[in-house]
Amino acid sequence: MRVFYLELKRILKTRLTWILLLASLAMTLLMAWLPTTFVEVDGLKGLAAVRRLKELQADTAGEVTPEKLQAALTAYQQCLREYGAETVRDLPDGVRTRQILPATGILHGVNEVYADPDTGIGPGLANIDPVELGDYYAACRARLASLMRMEQKDHPAAQAEAMRLYEKVETPYHFYPGFSTDAMDYQILLGFVLTLFAAVIAAPVFSSDYQTGADDIQRCMRHGRLVLGASKTGAALLVCGVTFSVCMALFILITDSLFGWETVGTSVQMLYSATMLADMTVLEIQWFTAGAGLLSLLAAVGLIVFLSSRIRTTAAALAAALFSCVLPVFVYFAAPESVGLWLRALIPSSGAAGVQTSMLFTMLDYDFLNAASFAIWLPRAMVTATALELPLFAAAGVWSYVKHVLT
Amino acid sequence: MELQIDRITKSFKDKRAVDDVSMTLTPGVWGLLGANGAGKTTLMRMIAGIMKPDAGQIRYDGLPIGTLKGRYREIFGYLPQEFGFYPEFTVKDYLEYAAALKGLPVRDTKRRIKELLEMLSLSDVYRKKIVKLSGGMKRRVGIAQALLNEPELLILDEPTSGLDPGERVRFRNLLSEFAKDRIVLISTHIVSDVEYIATRNAVMKDGGLIAEGTTEELVKLVDGKVWQCVIPAVWLPEYERRLRVVNLRNEADGRVSVRYLAENAEAAMTLRKADAGEEEDADAAPVPAAPRLEDLYLWLFPQDTAHDAAGESRKMKTDRPSVSGTGYGQIPAAKAASLEGSSVGTTGATVTYGQTVSDRSEDSASGQRKGGGNA
């Protein structure tokens, strides 16, 4: 423990670490505040707009019952009829704000649920009969079934697994107006930035010692191999993990305080797809994304430490580390879909640094890893893989350092 | 207590860095001599266990060091040629870190660090960042870490590079004292560092061990091969061209005292006659000089004369004021000009290797053995 403590102290004494820690804190504060600036309602901006939106949609807050949905849709359609408008864009600004905006929050996802089962194209809200909303949650299940038939055409196991997952989703959904999905996007972006910072901290762990020759001395000391290797790895994981956790926690606390703590009780299906497979509220998905991101970040740091133990120069180790962080993005765009999905599950940084491949965006999707009659939802595969990779890469890094010899 | 090096071989690509070296190190200071590229550092790295030999085995008290693992490292101290450290560390941070890695109990750490700081005159820079210290001080910090655990086996690769003469003398005395009941192996090409304190020396050349013995035993190898004479300065270029001059010094009346290596006196005698013609010059007659370890080194590594002079940019220094204004005492201006820069190598001549004039003076002052004919 003494070596671990001294190694931790050493990392925390380096100027670069402090610069990165302070930058992490600054980025957290900035990214938590920025999403509030994007909200615009009734000529208002920022937090004032959030407050105005809450006032306008206050009547729809709470459980999303079929009755509430029917009432909201009826009001919506009546307004259009009253002003002879085909779409809301044809309405005067004031009318849109006073009569349409109160209904749109709760009606999120309705046109998606009633999409054509063959084409997937959703009707306009003006074309849906409010009576149909009486069986809204059955329509959600039907919509998911048709969606999965399109998305996982050749994989009945995946279709069945999706339905099983959705059965666990609590209904009726809950809706508390005011929260913006921009805040979730910024949480993903923050995860990406923090992972890059972690890569910069972790990349030189071993390679810097090889480069300076400090390693030659240290590995001749009694605790200079296994104990030092484990301490260095542990200290890098701890510094990066604590930084990520603190920043994410701070981000969530600030974001939720700004938007209002009542808003985060909203079901994720009321912000994203109405048939999303995760049984979570906004608050739960925020923490889940943070937790899965932390696991992904730690596994990525484990991989970077392993790379560092194999690379003799700091610059090369840093390049390899940064590449490992942006690799999921390349895979997302470049790899063929089935191969890409497996790679996304296996690359440890996917969940934290991938942005497009992040845990949140993966949960919004309906991707499954299919093997014969087996199917696993990609977010689950990613969490499982990173949980296994973290100890694996960390141990491989220590082992590689212990076995390192000059050539 | 003994370290057995048994038929160790190590190759890098097409170069055999260490070639079938065997020796047994017993308590005392061991000097490992050899030119650059002789294989000293590679051998030391293998002894330190940070490089694996291609063949052969290193045993400590009969057990292979690979199987001793932590127990071997516990009694081991090592200072490599390049002293690597963390730039953010102060001397205090570094020594505490090293003490923890060496497994020193917390209660002993402070005491031992204090002792070493005083011993190595580092107390004043205890809280300074290592990166801001002078080269000599950094080296002393490196020595301090190697000594922290009072190792039974201490390996020092070029420990005195960067140390000033006073520091080198203190370091040598420190090591002499430390080496009682311990094995200390020092690699250097500064021969004087080990000449006076080494119990035994080993000489490496082209990866092989070519000689081993006490300083007295080794210098016998060049007995009768070291000569000195005092010649007119104008003869010097010819002497340097034809003989392996290891040292020269200005004397009064435009003469130069020359120390050189030769298989026998005949070459110099011939030269004297050629230069002097019919004129008799009794001082110019070569007389045998008492050999030193440095003479042996230069005898074994003749190419080092040119290499060392050019590579390390050492210039001849004299303890006499310059007459010609060239800084080279009474050596003729033409010769002085040729000595500027690296032309020493081109003439094949050299000045005192590994020692500056101040070293010599310091050796005299400390009352240590001094080679005959040098001063």
Oligomer state of the chains in this structure: heterodimer
- Would you identify the CATH architecture of the largest domain in chain B? 3-Layer(aba) Sandwich
- Provide the CATH superfamily of the largest domain in chain B: P-loop containing nucleotide triphosphate hydrolases
Q: Main sheet of chain B: which strands, in order across? A: 6-7-8-3-9-10
Can you list the strand order of the major beta sheet of chain A?
A: 1-2
Ranges of chain B where pLDDT stays below 50 over 5 or more residues in a row are: 306-375
Question: What structural class do helix, strand and pairing data of chain B support?
Answer: alpha/beta
Helix run count of chain B: 16
SSE class of chain A: mainly alpha
Give your account of this protein's structure.
The complex is a heterodimer of chains A (407) and B (375). Chain A is mostly helical and 407 residues long. Chain A has two domains: 2-37 and 180-403, no CATH class; 51-175, no CATH class. Chain A has 18 helices and six strands. Chain A has helices at 2-13, 15-37, 46-56, 66-82, 93-104, 110-113, 136-151, 156-167, 181-202, 204-212, 214-218, 226-259, 282-310, 314-334, 337-346, 350-353, 359-364, 378-403; strands at residues 40-41, 44-45, 62-63, 174-175, 368-371, 374-377. In chain A, helix 1 packs across helix 12. The longest helix of chain A has 34 residues, at 226-259. The model of chain A has no long low-confidence stretch (mean pLDDT 93). With 375 residues, chain B is α/β, with parallel strands linked by helices. Chain B has helices at 40-48, 65-68, 70-74, 91-101, 106-119, 135-147, 165-178, 191-195, 215-219, 236-242, 266-276, 293-300, 303-311, 333-339, 343-347, 357-365; strands spanning 3-12, 15-25, 28-33, 55-60, 63-64, 76-79, 153-157, 183-188, 200-205, 208-213, 226-232, 244-250, 255-261, 287-288. In chain B, helix 7 (165-178) links the parallel strand 7 (153-157) and strand 8 (183-188). Chain B is globular. The model of chain B is unreliable at 306-375 (pLDDT under 50). At the A-B interface, helix 1 and helix 11 of A face helix 3, strand 6, helix 4 and helix 6 of B.
